[in-house]
Write a structure and sequence with these properties.
Length: 369
């Protein structure tokens, strides 16, 4: 495999995970939190799988609701039997990738950009994408007094979460499609791209230091609650209005050694997504309850209701859109052309889907041989 070498921008900052939707600490630090105390205990006397414990990682955000709800409602633990699930939450993609590499977690929910960066930086040796979790949930929200149409974005100050993250890449690609020029690293040009942590973005909007933001939920809905207007939903830019926002990844070492455990987690994920989609109101409440446990504060209805509606929960990792997102990063000058062949292994997911009477999912030519 001819692995891509990320440029200085990505070596320095790392491509971080999409959608850092923390409630009270939305920053992109590298701190992780052991949330084992939130986990339902393994059933007494239940049969263990090939390992005593499986360590999973995810973010406390709505686009990671499969993990939030699956842990909260005990749906993963039910599939794991006597094998205990140990969750940890992360504030950033790089820290979760580091944890995966170090063996601190075995399986993680994470965005496409860190998945791509982690895979290419390790010459394709550290991870596999084994399933999907969520699509959508990203919007361009603007000050309607300053920006009334898409063409008015030119010359304005628009925030993205961080240089090189998934929303940053998407916005830079959209700018290029308008025929405008912006230096990717500095953010200067026909549009001023202001990299701002999501925890700061609402205050920056209120102070007038930014004119809008290309951000994930629930940050987008927080801006709307402050008087902002949704000018563009990113889903409208994609075929069938679907694009990957959260993947499930696994350490290749763990996948090889414990496929039964990986299969059980995937079965829990598939069943959790089915429950979320069949019971959206209950699932929303469960996700908010999990978020409240992690942060100490639940999202208000004015924020969580519209945010929840814009996220789609799916078992499909939408492989073709991951490849497109990588192309956008290359186009922006943030990534050298990557070789993503082998980044997916959907064998166990398709086994689970077949057992559930569901259609198998294609790897878009990016599967492991």
């Amino acid at each position: 495999m001819s692995a891509a070498r990320p440029l200085t921008t990505l070596r320095t900052l790392a491509v971080i995970a999409t959608l850092p939707l923390l409630l009270t600490a939305c920053g992109y630090g590298s701190k992780s939190t052991d949330d084992g105390k939130q986990t339902p205990a393994a059933a007494a006397g239940a049969k263990k799988l090939s390992v005593d414990e499986v360590k999973i990682g995810y973010f406390p955000n709505l686009t990671h609701a499969t993990a939030l709800v699956g842990v909260q409602e005990g749906l993963f633990q039910k599939e794991l039997g006597g094998t205990t699930i140990k969750p940890s939450t992360f504030n950033a993609g790089p820290s979760e990738i580091e944890a995966l590499n170090a063996g601190s977690i075995d399986i993680g929910w994470i965005g496409p950009s860190p998945s791509i960066n982690g895979y290419t930086k390790s010459d394709g040796k550290n991870l596999r994408i084994i399933g999907g979790s969520a699509s959508g949930g990203v919007k361009l929200v603007v000050n309607p007094k300053k920006i009334k149409s898409l063409k008015d974005v030119k010359g304005k100050k628009i925030a993205t979460p961080q240089l090189g993250n998934t929303q940053d890449v998407a916005f830079l690609n959209w700018i290029a499609d308008q025929g405008w020029k912006v230096d990717a690293e500095s953010g200067k040009g026909d549009v001023s791209v202001v990299r701002t942590d999501n925890k700061i973005t609402p205050d920056a909007y209120k102070s007038g230091s930014i004119d809008g933001a290309w951000v994930p939920e629930p940050t987008a809905s927080k801006l709307v609650a402050e008087g902002g207007k949704v000018l563009l939903d990113e889903s409208t830019l994609w075929p069938d209005k679907k694009f990957v926002i959260t993947n499930i990844i696994v350490s290749q070492k763990f996948l090889k050694a414990h496929p039964d455990v990986v299969e059980a987690v995937l079965r829990g994920s598939v069943k959790t997504n089915a429950w979320i989609n069949a019971n959206p109101d209950e699932a929303k409440a469960a996700a908010n309850k999990a978020l409240e446990k992690l942060s100490g504060k639940a999202l208000p209805a004015a924020v969580i209701d519209p945010a929840w509606k814009s996220v789609q929960f799916t078992d499909d990792p939408l492989a073709s859109t991951l490849n497109t997102e990588a192309e956008h990063a290359v186009k922006a000058g943030l990534l050298e052309k990557p070789d993503l062949k082998g980044i997916y292994d959907l064998t166990l997911l398709n086994k689970v889907l077949k057992a559930e009477g569901k259609s198998e999912i294609d790897e878009a030519g990016l599967g492991a041989e």
